[in-house]
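Q: A reviewer asked whether we had any structural model of the full assembly, not just the individual parts. We don't, so I'm hoping you can provide one. Inputs are below.
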Amino acid sequence: MNNLHAKTLDIINLNVTLPNGHRLLRDVSLSLEPGEVRALVGESGAGKSMIGKAVLGILPTGISISQGEILLEGTHLNALTPATRRKTIAQTSALIPQDPLTALNPVRKIGPQITDPLTRIHGWTKARALARTRELLDRVHIRNPDRVLNSYPHELSGGMRQRILIAAAFAPSPRLIVADEPTTALDVTVQKEILRLIRELQQETGTGVLFVTHDMGVVAKISQKVTVLFGGRVVEDAPTRDIFENPEHAYTRALIAATPTPNASIEPFRPVPPALIAELHREIQADDDRFSKRAQP
Amino acid sequence: MVDATYSPRPMRFKVRNLRLWLPLLWIATLIIAAVFAPIFAPHDPLAQDLMLERLPPFFIDGSEPGHLLGTDSLGRDVLSRMIYGARIALFVSVIAAFSTGIFGSTLGLIAGYYGGWWDRVISRLVDIWMAFPPVLFAVLLVAVIGTGLTSVIFAIALIDWTRFARVIRAETMVQAQMDYVDSARIGGARRMATLLSEILPNVLPSIIALLALEMGIAVIVEAILSFVNLSISSDDPTWGSMISEGRGAIHFAWWVLLFPLIALFLTVLSFSTLGEGLKKQFDPVLK
Amino acid sequence: MTDVMTPPQPALFSIKGLHLSFPDRAHRPLFGAAPRIEVLKGLTLDLPEGRITGIVGESGSGKSTLGRVLVRLLAPDAGQVTFDGKDIGALDEDALRPLRRDLQMIFQDPMSSLNPRHKVWRIIAQPMKRYRRGGTRADALKALEKVGLPESFADRYPHELSGGQRQRVGIARAIALEPRFILADEIVSGLDVSSQAQVLSLLKTLAKDMGLTVAFISHDLSVIRHLCDDVIVLNHGEIVDSGPVQTVFEHPKSDITKALLGAIPRPEIDDSWFE
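A: Here is a predicted structure for the entire assembly that you could use as a starting point for your response.
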């Protein structure tokens, strides 16, 4: 089933739709090579989180994939039965969520919350799962793994919880990790630490990462490829270096310009020009008209 | 990070809203029947006619066309007694629910917002109050202060205010944590003004929902007290006393028991569904 | 730039030896009072009149607590909080009320700081009415115009607005009273960069036009660099660095400041950033 030469992830013309037909993702295509970090960047409403949710099969109720293909490690996810699809996704992918507090069950200890998926989904023995968990906790610089494994989530700080979730995500060496704004709730110094950990582990395990963020600064540091989104549409798709040194689309340039930097010589507070937003909305409208024509020939 | 612009939704007549409209329909029927009882009731609810005792309802052989739902063991018309009974049921439920609601919500708002000493006293009082078995408490109370509708209403308010006090206290505490309460202080509002113009509008949907629920409860309590003959005089037509009398004749005149029981059931069910529905309708945010 | 040339301004706020602690409910014994956690450990600082002072620090540094003492939502355990020559640290609510018109605040979360049951114009007009500075619909419309929102927003409810629009309403409410001081507590942390830029340039323009003294609390040094005249860096309830922004950014004294500056991910390719 697995094709050794396949891309980690290949998304082709993905459309995600509300029950009333409104599209949240509009013909999104992107791909991810093994060991690559691709940033999905955009403002709220751009649909960047929706892509990760569609790939992991965790779209909110009522929202569904109306068209398009998702290939995970060369496997067409749409072609599978729901049960097989869930199993395939669980065995190859993991999620690092935005809010490390609600992602952990408050009434269970940390230890079993990390090891359970390893034994249940990956069929590991308890001993192997525990050894791997300890190894990973050490890798994310948690000095006292046994104490942490026996703690409840509320006994740990936000940065600590996020490191635990990173360890849990990387423990089975998944092929794909979706990181959904994993540092938005953290202080800058902790953010830097977390970004470094994700980068180190991802390079070590050769895991491909879809990194959802709204921060162009984070994009510049963590990713090799970037997909810039607006209104559920791909505005620009390019290697990170090109995005910052030679951005093609005006919206990409505007997003970079709006990102605050401590550099005093750069003119501050430049919002995305309203004319550009209006232009993008017009493009979306035209796109939707074509789409509805295509749907009803 | 939600940045979407919402637009207000107009209230629409949808199947989903049946949960709101069906109870409203039943309650409206009751209100009309109660207000215009002398017009709608085919007979005097107290008129006895021993020649026509235990007549069955219209769909059973041997019925009389004048007595749609039959007659009881004293020959009184069941439908007419039910219509007059609705008068008492509605009167009791509205007055009792509002007095209970106003009393309990006031205490709940004070405890939840002022906290400290106020909260400790009110919360302890609620704890103590709830330790009494409610029906026994009501029976004792009415036995002491005497029977009659005023006593029934008084008993309901005195027992059930804790329901309002508890829920509204908790809701008020949640609202009091919100920044808009601090921002009212920053804007120079006095504490009482903050409570009335900032917090109260936000707990009002809960109060309304509880009021509807309380009306249902009041109907039941009134029926229970009638059932044990502690409401108004047993001649007067109340659903409770009809059920109580019908119980004795269940084997040969089940309709005397069944029809008021159905009315009671529908009314209580309507009030409680209405409560939930109203809460949603009145909440601009949660919709 | 011009920071060094600016003559020293008289302080609008002068704070000396400010201490504040909270009860630690998580470690409350079965009987008796909970132990207290010291959040502010003897702060001494001045906020010069007519300037924007940034207060920066990580979570737990006490920056929001300090802010809430300035607008007297919290009272200090010890120390002086002098506003315009008057110690307001120990005043009770009744004595504070006339002063509050001058001490306004813009909140972090505009959704929870705008009453969801009131229309926009009423949210703005209500405090004006209380201080007898107008409070009609027309007055609210004027304030809305100042923050760049059209008249049509007056009759909307907060949940019908976008995050950036809500924060503008928060600003309109604060400036409508023509205060002397405004506390802005993480006012852009929930917004997209584009709305951030709009709200911040609006705040800067209004503050300079109205001669406001502003305390701007943020975890984001980039924003402070461009918005503020002075900056105070807090760490675990103590001041570790302070001064004009240019000085602090170019010659940070404390390792904390250096770490904070070094951790900002700038939107540019920098392969050595993680080292």
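A: Points you may want to mention in the reply: Residues 186 and 218 of chain C are 5 Å apart (CA to CA). Chain C touches chain B through 37 residues (CB under 8 Å).
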